[in-house]
Amino acid sequence: MKDQESARAIISENIYGTVATTAEDGAPWAAPQFMVYDDEVKTIYWCAARASQHGQNITSNGKAFVVVYDSSVGPGEGSGVYLRTDASIVTDPAERETAMAKLIAQHAGVPYWSYEDVSRPDALAAAFKAKVRQAWVNKGREENGQFVLYREPVEL
């Protein structure tokens, strides 16, 4: 239970994560993103240009791996959550409205895309989502006198 609570706290309290995708030719791509997590639907939301490399990759294959971690802590004190997801552009208007409201609220006081910016047919930006399919947290242990990190599955 502690791992589950820790994982939920990390992805709920940290506003940045890295979205990793793969292009059609197999080339990897990682993009830091401002994001928000909706625990009710186990989904991460963010906005980006439709033409961005990760946007093109997601449109092409619907897969993303997301890592969220607290970069404000000292060495050896950090934790991360690793998420295998199914990713896409948010097309449902009600879901897009909810996602945008959460993103804008979290981004208060700083310019950000509006619901209208990502909803128009000619929109250059889009709201993206990554539905969590599997999650892991970091763990450490000693093996043969050496400290090693490994991932432990966790249910969100």
What labels would you give this structure?
8 strands; globular; 8-stranded antiparallel β-sheet; 4 helices; Pnp Oxidase, Chain A; alpha+beta
Summarize the structure in words.
The protein has one domain (2-153): Electron Transport, Fmn-binding Protein, Chain A (Pnp Oxidase, Chain A, Roll). A hairpin with a 4-residue loop joins strand 3 and strand 4. It is globular and about 60 Å long. Strands 1, 2, 3, 4, 5, 6, 7 and 8 form an eight-stranded antiparallel beta sheet that branches. It is of the alpha+beta class and 156 residues long. Helices cover 26% and strands 44% of the residues.
Relative helix content: 25-40%
Globally, the shape reads globular
Distance between the termini: 10 Å
Global mean pLDDT = 92
Largest sheet: 8 strands, antiparallel
Strand proportion: 35-45%
Q: How do the SSEs run, as a string of H and E?
A: HEEEEHEEHHEE
Broad CATH class: Mainly Beta
The figure for the number of domains is 1
Total DSSP E strands = 8
Radius of gyration: 16 Å
- By CATH, the architecture is named Roll
Low-pLDDT residue intervals, each spanning 5 or more residues: none
Structural class per helix/strand content?
alpha+beta
The CATH topology: Pnp Oxidase, Chain A
Under CATH, the homologous superfamily reads Electron Transport, Fmn-binding Protein, Chain A
